[in-house]
């Protein structure tokens, strides 16, 4: 009764002889007991794909962020980047769990993360790009967190209760992400000539990947969630930061689509395959492993 | 025979947070509700951050406490809406955080701004407000790392969300 040791308590709660307590247990279900009925006018397959789009964006960028562990310029930044990745991983878990409910397949978050092939991932190409230097990672985070934060504010009125809940919680987290990226953009851009050059190069390199976040997919349009409405406010917010950092707003053209298709259609750059090969290796080497 | 056992709400209110063990889930504002219908007890928890890894442990802990107290039909469910906020931490919770050396979050906070924010945070060791933020991100998702310029001690601070 007074035993406050978490792991002992977990062992004692093992009343259904469940051998695992981490991934794969009922308690780890990020939507445990949440009312998951679909709204009557929402198509389950569309909602599932939409949740995969937003879930995959978060999952893949979380993976890129944790790649900074042991490589960041300072310990504090390493902790910060891992924290940002953890927030995104949490958003991904909720969204991918919702995806499996919405389409009626009952697939779990792990099924989506570890057992889909590259062409089934629906993330934008921005999040899969290799980390590059710290400036590129900061620039990507600035663009991504600003756009996703604006989207999540819109999703507070989304036609699905789980999506709404994820968005309301996530918007606050993304405000911290944007603030982190903003602080570094200002510091590097308005720092030395050398740091400004590197920061400008980071912005220039990531800018062509921004447009994809505003390009509507048929699924988004059917759900009434056209991301094109984000373009103007997001570009204005980004221009404010870039200008304050004494840098130049890039004018690079968007990265070309492939036959009209891009990340939201499952068409990716080479970087995603390499990321997935590492990310999925343990789950595929030891299917159903428990520990 | 009369079986006496504490009410389920009382039992659930004693469970502590795994990462901030000086606080109960009730003081942290994570305990969103306890319902009893006949023998069936349902406890609602609201996770703090989307990626908070402590949720599974909180749920297991609540479940175990209630079973030990004699309840057999227990279900722990998550409530995502409305989301958790540091505004839900009780006054007692804030006092206990400060006592444990963690500066509590501001009681009311506005929207985050673009530029660097200026906060007046009192050192939980000496009370001085001559403090500075070392990193917005600390040992857990909910905390930032600060330092007191007066007594030179580093300390953690729970950040507003």
Explain what you see:
The complex is a heterodimer of chains A (291) and B (161). Chain A is mostly helical and 291 residues long. Chain A has one domain: Ferritin, core subunit, four-helix bundle (Ferritin, Up-down Bundle). In chain A, 57% of the residues lie in helices and 0% in strands. Chain A has twelve helices and no strands. The N terminus of chain A is likely disordered. Chain B is α/β, with parallel strands linked by helices and 161 residues long. Chain B has four helices and seven strands. The longest helix of chain B is centred in the middle third of the chain and has 14 residues. Chains A and B meet through helix 1, helix 3, helix 7 and helix 10 of A and helix 3 and strand 3 of B.
Topology summary:
The complex is a heterodimer of chains A (291) and B (161).
Chain A: H1 6-12, H2 44-66, H3 75-102, H4 109-115, H5 125-128, H6 134-154, H7 161-189, H8 193-206, H9 218-222, H10 231-244, H11 270-279, H12 281-285
Helix pairs in contact in A: 2-3, 3-4, 3-7, 6-7, 6-8, 6-10
Chain B: H1 8-13, H2 25-28, E1 31-37, E2 40-45, H3 55-68, E3 73-78, H4 91-99, E4 102-103, E5 131-135, E6 143-148, E7 154-158
Parallel strand pairs in B: 2-3, 4-7
Antiparallel strand pairs in B: 1-2, 5-6, 6-7
Task: Give keywords.
heterodimer, A: 291 residues, mainly alpha, Ferritin, 12 helices, globular, disordered N terminus, B: 161 residues, alpha/beta, GMP Synthetase, Chain A, domain 3, 2 domains, 4-stranded mixed sheet, 3-stranded mixed sheet, 4 helices, 20% helix, 23% strand
Distance between the termini of chain A: 27 Å
CATH superfamily of the largest domain in chain B: Fe-S cluster assembly (FSCA)
Order of helices and strands of chain A: HHHHHHHHHHHH
- CATH homologous superfamily classification of chain A: Ferritin, core subunit, four-helix bundle
CATH fold label of chain A:
Ferritin
Mean pLDDT over the full residue set of chain B: 85
Provide the gyration radius of chain A in Å: 20 Å
């Amino acid at each position: 009764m007074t035993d406050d040791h978490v792991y002992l308590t977990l062992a004692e709660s093992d009343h259904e002889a469940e051998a695992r307590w981490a991934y794969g247990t009922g308690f780890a279900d990020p939507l445990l007991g949440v009312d998951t009925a679909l709204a009557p006018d929402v198509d389950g397959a569309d909602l599932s794909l939409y949740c995969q789009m937003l879930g995959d964006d978060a999952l893949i960028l979380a993976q890129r962020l944790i790649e900074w562990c042991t490589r960041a310029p300072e310990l504090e930044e390493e902790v910060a980047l891992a924290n940002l990745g953890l927030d995104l991983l949490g958003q991904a878990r909720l969204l991918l769990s919702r995806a499996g409910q919405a389409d009626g397949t009952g697939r779990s978050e792990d099924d989506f993360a570890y057992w889909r092939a590259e062409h089934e991932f629906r993330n934008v190409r921005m999040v899969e790009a290799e980390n590059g230097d710290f400036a590129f990672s900061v620039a990507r985070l600035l663009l991504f967190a600003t756009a996703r934060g604006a989207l999540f504010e819109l999703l507070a009125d989304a036609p699905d209760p789980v999506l709404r809940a994820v968005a309301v919680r996530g918007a606050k987290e993304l405000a911290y992400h944007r603030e982190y990226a903003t602080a570094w953009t200002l510091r590097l851009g308005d720092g030395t000539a050398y740091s400004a050059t590197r920061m400008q190069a980071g912005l220039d390199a990531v800018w062509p990947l921004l447009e994809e976040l505003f390009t509507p997919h048929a699924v988004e349009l059917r759900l009434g969630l056209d991301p094109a409405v984000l373009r103007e406010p997001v570009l204005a917010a980004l221009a404010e930061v870039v200008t304050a950092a004494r840098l130049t707003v890039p004018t690079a053209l968007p990265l070309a689509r492939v036959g009209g298709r891009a990340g939201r259609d499952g068409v990716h750059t080479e970087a995603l395959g390499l990321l997935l090969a590492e990310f999925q290796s343990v789950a595929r080497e030891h299917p159903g492993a428990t520990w | 025979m009369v079986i006496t056992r504490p009410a389920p709400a009382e039992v659930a209110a004693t469970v502590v947070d795994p990462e901030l063990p000086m606080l109960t889930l009730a003081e942290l504002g994570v305990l969103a509700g306890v319902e009893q219908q006949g023998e069936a007890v349902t406890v609602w928890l609201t996770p703090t951050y989307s990626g908070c890894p402590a949720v599974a442990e909180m749920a297991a802990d609540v479940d175990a406490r209630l079973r030990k107290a004699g309840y057999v039909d227990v279900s722990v469910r998550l409530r995502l809406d409305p989301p958790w906020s540091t505004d839900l931490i009780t006054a007692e919770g804030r006092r206990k955080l400060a006592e444990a050396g963690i500066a509590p979050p501001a009681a009311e906070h506005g929207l985050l701004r673009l530029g660097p924010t200026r906060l007046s945070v009192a050192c939980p060791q000496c009370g001085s407000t001559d403090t500075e933020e070392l990193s917005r991100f600390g040992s857990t998702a909910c905390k930032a790392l600060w330092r007191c310029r007066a007594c030179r001690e580093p300390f953690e601070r729970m950040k507003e969300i």
